[in-house]
Amino acid sequence: MYRFGPLLLTLLLVVLSGCKPPAGNAGNASGEPGSTLSSSPPVIEWRLATSWPKNFPGLGMAPERFARLVDDMSNGRLKILVHGAGELMPAFAVFDGVSQGKIQMAHAASYYWKGKTPAAQFFSSIPFGMTAQEMNGWLHYGGGMALWEEVYRPFGVIPLAGGNTGMQMGGWFNKPINTIADFKGLKIRMPGLGGEVLKRAGAVPVNMAGRELYGALQTGSIDAAEWVGPLNDLAFGLHKVAKYYYYPGWHEPGSNMEFLINKAAFEALPKDLQAIVKVAARAINQDMLDEYTTRNVTALNILVKDEGVELREFPAQVLTELEQISLRVIEEQANQDPLMRKVYDAYHVYEQGVRQYHKIAEDAYSQQRQQ
Ligand code: CA
Question: Which residues have a beta carbon within 5 Å of ligand 1, which is an ion?
Fold first, then answer.
C-alpha cells in the first residue's frame, strides 16, 4: 500500500536506535563532507554603494537599516555590505556600477540619471508634482512601479522604492528672492527638472554631491543651493554659509529614493531571499518618511531658534511663474523622448485624479488647521 514503507521503516529504526547526526557541518577528520541535513545554507554577500556619505542622517541610514533587516530576515544568509559615496565609486557612478555588475545594489535618487534616460526623473520628484503620500500610492497601487521597471530594463537594473524625504525645502540663499528676476545669473545647486526650470528663469543651475555644498557656498563658487530639508541641511551646516532658508521646496514636493539592484544578481537569488529584499525595501521606504516627519521638526527648531536662521517663503507670484515654466519644460522634454512621454502621461493622469480627492481631504484639512 505504501510505496515508501521500507524507507520510512528504516528511518524510524535509525531514530529509535539513537543515531546522532554528525556534529557540525565542516566534515569529519578524514575530510569527508558532513551530513547535508545539518549543513548551513550558503551565505551570499552583496555590495551596496550609495550616493550619500556613510551613515548620513535619513538618506544614508536607509541602506544601513535595510542591510540589517535583510540580514535578520534571512538569518544571515544574505549579507549586504554598505559603502558610502566615494568609498567604492563616486556618488553619481552608482547606477553604472549596478548596471555593469561591479556592485549588486545601490541607494540613490532617480533624477540623477536624467542624462541616461529622461523618464527616470518621474520616479524621484518633479517640480509641482506629487507629494510623498501620492508618490507611494502611484508607485505601489497606480502602475508607477511597472513603468519604473520598464525605464531601467535596458540597463539590467531593477528599481525598488527606497524611502521618501517628504516635502523638501526651497534652498539656501544669500540674497532675497522677491521676484522671478532675482534668479537671473544666480549660480545655484539644483539637480533634475528643477534645475532646468531655474535655467529658463535665468539662473545657472549646477549639480554636485551633497558633501561639496558647504565648501561651494563658502567660497562663493555657487550663490545658492538646495539639498533636502532641515535634518540633512543642518547636518551639512549649510546655515553657516547662507543667510536665508526658503520654502516651500516647489522643485521636490516628495522626493522618492531608490534601491537599484543588478537584475542578474537578483534573479540568481532563491525565491525566499528575493521576497526578503523586496519586503525589507518596502519597510525601509516607509521608515524613511516616518523619520523625516519627526526629525525635520526638531532640526528646524534648532536652525531657527538656536542658529538664528531667517526663514522665508517664496512670494506666491514667484511660485506661480515657476509652475508655469515647469509645465512647459516637462512638456518639451516629454515631446523629445517617447518613453518620457509615456511615463509623464501616466503620472499626469494619476496626479490629476489624486488631486481631486486630496482637495476635499488633505488640502481641506490643512486649510482648516491654518486658521
Ligand atoms: Ca533636493
Answer: 168, 252
